[in-house]
Specification:
Cobalamin-bd_sf; 5 helices; 5 strands; Cobalamin B12-binding domain-containing protein; alpha/beta; about 45% helix; Cobalamin-bd; single chain
Length: about 140
Amino acid sequence: MHRLNVVLTTTASDSHTWNLIYLELLLQEWGHAVTNLGPCMPPELLLRRCRELTPDLVVVSSVNGLGFGEARTLIPLLRDCPELAETPVVIGGKLGTGVEDEAAEAAELRAAGFDLVVNDSDGLGPFRDFVESMCLRVLR
């Protein structure tokens, strides 16, 4: 299995860390190198750090329910950067406050440029499958 270089963070307003530690340990258990940038990551700083680190994958976690709104301003920064335009970017967790249409929000975030959108209710399966498929693509 190919080892991915993963950058992990939250959105700018999300101060939660337990989700980042969990994802960091999970990705490491799967054999990947993880740079955990921590919570409350301003989009411009995430862009700068990703340009420095040249990750294979960027993972953005949201716990506070504001992920959907903040993700729509974050992804254009990454996609407009030539070095990161093709880098897979995943967002997941509690992306809304619970009254939104999760399927519609996920579709909108995918259309905006996220490669995978995982809501709390989806569990880890889609994320695990996505990471595994990235490893298989690299091996071909």
